[in-house]
TrEMBL record:
One Pfam family here: YaiO
Residue stretches of each TPR repeat: 149-182
Entry keyword set: TPR repeat
Record-linked SUPFAM superfamilies: TPR-like
Protein name: YaiO beta-barrel domain-containing protein
Coiled coil: none
Superkingdom classification of source: Bacteria
Ranges for domain YaiO beta-barrel: 198-370
PROSITE patterns, per database record: TPR
Length: 432
């Protein structure tokens, strides 16, 4: 009997202790563990919490946890400017615009002068179409950091997006003085230039010499007028040519309407009553894209009509890198038996602004863009052609633009018979 009583007491004691342990664990994890965790986090430095917050944001894209860690860090170090700026960025990336502005406004009232603060706050306003506020912040930031490439570039983008092309150009000019190899600035400068000059008049002279193919030299004179509009540029051009000892006249109209900040079109047409010297009709359409990482691309077609239509399909890809521009272009011309191909590779080195450069080209085949496009008639384009050339463009006082180019061609104008050709082009244009 005593044995069973002892066993019952032992079982009762163990049951009681087990129940007490469960109650203790429940109370600890429900009420005490959070306090213990907070106390443990309090022992972690603000720098360590900042590091954890950056890891959560950049590696895991967990902005909620990054915000919580940043707040904990600021509880320990309320004056830690870098963490406050980072918290404002986190709110911006999380689309919590009012919270981001609240953080940045407090930093502004504290008189913070950090470059990163002005970049973060101005970027917030830029991404939310607050161009006036963004410009004000950037001007203030540049008064403290006049050599900041990031602030100058953001100022150029802000003004470009707000259709303020002259301030955008000034910002790009200042940036390129600081760093002529700034890749993104080079790409943006080209886009700004398309809107900056309201009017441009230009003239050019093209001299063409053949050693075998033709007895007479060619002479082509062109005059053009370009007008920049709110939707893109429009160009009217008149071409006079003396080819095969005969004269001819051609009229062309081209436009570059913009569809968005990324996409724009090329639309061109031409007419001449002097068939053989020029095509009777020509048309062309291309879609251009300003792609990320300073790339640009194009796809389109060109059509020339002499006695029959010649259709060519074109594609190109370009890349800005520091003060260089690289481009690859092809023209594909379907035929009854095969597809004729033309390729050209261009390298352009910018010496100063968007209109000052030295370029080199190498390629094969005939292009519909050249003054020798009338040689495409009667199908000689199937014969082999090699070309290499160089061009130098420079500006004086930004409004006077000069160009000089020379291209050498070695062309198979009859089967197994080749000849040489030399093109020299002089050009001048005035913007106003």
């Amino acid at each position: 009997m005593n044995f069973f009583c002892k066993l019952a007491r032992k079982w009762h004691t163990e049951f009681y202790l087990s129940a007490m342990r469960k109650i203790f664990y429940f109370v600890f994890y429900t009420f005490l563990f959070p306090l213990f965790s907070v106390a443990q986090e309090a022992s972690v430095s603000a720098d360590e919490l900042f590091s954890r917050a950056r890891k959560q944001a950049f590696e895991y894209k967990n902005y909620v946890q990054a915000i919580n860690l940043s707040k904990q860090a600021l509880q320990q170090a309320p004056e830690y400017t870098d963490i406050s700026i980072f918290l404002g960025r986190l709110y911006t990336w999380s689309d919590k615009i009012d919270s981001a502005r609240n953080v940045f406004d407090k930093l502004d009232k504290r008189g913070v002068q950090d470059e990163d603060f002005f970049m973060a706050y101005a970027s917030l306003e830029y991404w939310n179409d607050g161009y006036t506020k963004a410009n004000m912040l950037l001007d203030k930031g540049l008064s403290f950091h006049p050599d900041s490439q990031d602030l100058w570039f953001l100022k150029a983008k802000v003004n470009y997006s707000n259709n303020q092309y002259e301030p955008a150009q000034k910002a790009i000019d200042n940036l390129l003085k600081l760093n002529p190899k700034h890749t993104e600035a080079r790409a943006l400068a080209k886009n700004i230039q398309d809107f900056l000059a309201k009017n441009t008049i230009g003239v050019s002279y093209n001299f063409v010499h053949f050693d075998k193919q033709f007895d007479d030299n060619w002479h082509i004179v062109s005059a053009s007028y370009k007008r920049a509009t709110s939707i893109g540029s429009v160009i009217f051009k008149t071409n006079y040519a003396n080819k095969f000892a005969s004269n001819g006249l051609q009229f062309e109209l081209e436009a570059y309407p913009r569809l968005s900040k990324m996409f724009y079109l090329y639309v061109g047409t031409g007419y001449s009553n002097d068939v053989g010297i020029f095509p009777k009709y020509r048309t062309g359409v291309s879609v251009y894209a300003n792609l990320p990482h300073s790339f640009e691309g194009e796809v389109g077609y060109r059509q020339l009509y002499f006695s029959n239509s010649i259709w060519m399909y074109t594609a190109s890809v370009g890349k800005y890198y520091q003060d260089f521009w690289f481009n690859m272009r092809t023209y594909l011309t379907p035929g009854s038996e095969s597809i004729s191909q033309s390729y050209a590779a261009t390298v352009r080195y910018y010496t100063k602004g968007a209109n000052d450069y030295l370029s080199f080209v190498i390629g094969s085949g005939l292009s519909p863009e050249e003054n020798r496009s009338n040689l495409l008639d009667n199908s000689p384009y199937k014969l082999k052609t090699f070309k290499v050339g160089a061009e130098y463009n420079f500006s004086i006082n930004k409004t006077n633009l000069f160009s000089l180019s020379s291209t050498y061609y070695n062309q198979e104008f009859r089967p197994k018979e080749r000849g040489n050709q030399l093109d020299i082009i002089l050009g001048y244009s005035k913007t106003f």
